[in-house]
């Protein structure tokens, strides 16, 4: 007999993120009756007795807790005690615990965060970052590449771009030093004022340009709009306001025709849903009805952002809040995640052409957005362009079709655990482990993973779509 399935819908549920916010644990306030009047002697006796009882109670409670604990946990506690007290070298017990936490993770998407680490994650989820806004990658020959450069970060505003080689560093006014990726990271971390990084699209340090910046708090941007006439992205308020604004940046994209807009979405994080709404508004005001949506390198993020952004692409449905994905849990429960609205007809026509760029770094919420677009007819597989290695027989997106929830311990640590599989809304397809593939009918484009001075993949797609 088929098991009956529990099912419910959720729309913008803030406790149900793609990587959900932690469960909040609150302790009920406790109180005690006010003591009556007693003699000093009786009070002293009562205090002494209370102390004795507390001591006995604590011992009994500790013993009860200890012997009710799984014997394997007791054995681990004993081993750690011996390790800390008897090893011939000093042991960083916090580092040991970190290794233990990593070892017990059941899959690569589950992880443990200390309270301090999770505080930074929450801050970043609100679009507030610290530092210069780069992620570095080390090539096999030891060269250092700029793997990501966050929009509106100090590095991006200084002129650094994804795909550049980071070739040196120095204090302002001093000669360039060279070093390993670790040396560069250590230098950046130690700076309190302005400094210079040297970068270029070639590995020749003599051809590098200097870029001056400093570490600071900034509003991270995750969405960029461009058309043949102008561009918009998140920037700090020029009037000194606390909030960043979606501002004109005057970087039109050559190769676009006058009916097509380009939107790059880097992550489902921060204020990306609001940024995307502004981008769609600009697209409408500019009279563009075709769209190239660039999801390359977008590894996903929060489900609430997916629910908002997918609202623009639910084409062939009259439902005002259509399902854009659903989760299936181990116990059979199904949760439907619905769009915040259905805005397709306000921005597109029946003949609008929507094109999607993706690569092996496009994962999770990105793949769900593609699935919703396919299932509701906004695109089909032939509208998807995937990055491909030269000589490869196939190519695909990452293939992450599972979701995580976060659980908070009484000590404030957070356990991010994979709890459900994710399915496309109409077809019920789960792409976990497979991704969206060229063999499904998508187009493969041979191009390097990181763009150089020229974005080979984007230029190829523009030539195909806008010719």
TrEMBL record:
Tail specific protease domain: residues covered: 227-448
Positions of transmembrane segments: 44-67
Gene3D superfamilies: 2-enoyl-CoA Hydratase, Chain A, domain 1 (3.90.226.10), 2.30.42.10, 3.30.750.44
GO biological process: proteolysis; signal transduction
Molecular function terms from GO: endopeptidase activity; serine-type peptidase activity
GO CC terms, sorted: outer membrane-bounded periplasmic space
Keyword annotations from UniProtKB, A to Z: Membrane, Transmembrane, Transmembrane helix
Location of region: Disordered: 1-36
Domain of life: Bacteria
Coiled-coil stretches: none
Protein name: Tail specific protease domain-containing protein
Phylogenetic classification of the source organism: Bacteria, Bacillati, Bacillota, Clostridia, Candidatus Gallimonas
């Amino acid at each position: 007999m088929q098991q009956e399935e529990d099912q419910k819908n959720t729309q913008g549920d803030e406790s149900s993120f793609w990587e959900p916010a932690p469960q909040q644990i609150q302790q009920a306030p406790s109180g005690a009756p006010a003591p009556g009047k007693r003699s000093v002697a009786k009070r002293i006796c009562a205090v002494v007795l209370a102390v004795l009882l507390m001591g006995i109670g604590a011992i009994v409670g500790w013993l009860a807790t200890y012997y009710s604990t799984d014997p394997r946990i007791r054995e681990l506690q004993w081993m750690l005690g011996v390790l800390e007290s008897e090893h011939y070298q000093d042991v960083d017990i916090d580092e040991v615990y970190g290794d233990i936490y990593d070892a017990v993770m059941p899959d690569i998407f589950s992880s443990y965060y200390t309270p301090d680490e999770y505080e930074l994650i929450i801050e970043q989820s609100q679009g507030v970052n610290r530092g210069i806004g780069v992620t570095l990658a080390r090539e096999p020959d030891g060269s250092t590449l700029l793997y990501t450069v966050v929009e509106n970060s100090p590095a991006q505003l200084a002129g650094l771009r994804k795909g550049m080689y980071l070739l040196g560093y120095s204090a302002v006014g001093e000669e360039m030093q060279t070093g390993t990726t670790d040396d560069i990271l250590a230098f950046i971390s130690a700076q309190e004022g302005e400094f210079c990084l040297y970068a270029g699209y070639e590995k020749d340090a003599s051809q590098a340009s200097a870029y001056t910046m400093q570490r600071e708090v900034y509003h991270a941007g995750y969405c960029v709009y461009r058309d043949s006439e102008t561009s918009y992205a998140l920037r700090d308020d020029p009037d000194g306001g606390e909030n960043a604004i979606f501002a004109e940046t005057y970087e039109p994209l050559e190769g676009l025709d006058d009916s097509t807009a380009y939107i790059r979405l880097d992550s489902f994080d921060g204020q990306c849903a609001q940024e995307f709404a502004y981008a769609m508004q600009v697209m409408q005001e500019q009279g563009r009805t075709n769209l190239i949506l660039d999801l390359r390198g977008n590894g996903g993020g929060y489900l609430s952002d997916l629910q908002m952004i997918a609202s623009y692409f639910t084409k062939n449905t009259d439902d005002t809040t259509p399902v854009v994905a659903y989760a299936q849990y181990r116990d059979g429960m199904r949760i439907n995640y619905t769009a915040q609205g259905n805005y397709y007809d306000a921005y597109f026509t029946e003949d609008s052409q929507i094109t999607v760029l993706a690569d092996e770094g496009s994962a999770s919420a990105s793949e769900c957005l593609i699935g919703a677009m396919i299932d509701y007819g906004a695109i089909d597989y032939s509208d998807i362009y995937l990055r491909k290695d030269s000589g490869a027989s196939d190519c695909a997106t990452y293939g992450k079709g599972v979701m995580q929830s976060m659980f908070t311990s009484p000590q404030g640590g957070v356990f991010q655990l994979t709890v459900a599989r994710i399915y496309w809304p109409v077809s019920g397809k789960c792409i976990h482990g497979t991704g969206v593939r060229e063999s499904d009918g998508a187009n493969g484009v041979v191009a390097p993973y990181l763009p150089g001075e020229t974005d080979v993949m984007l230029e190829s797609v523009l030539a195909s779509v806008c010719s």
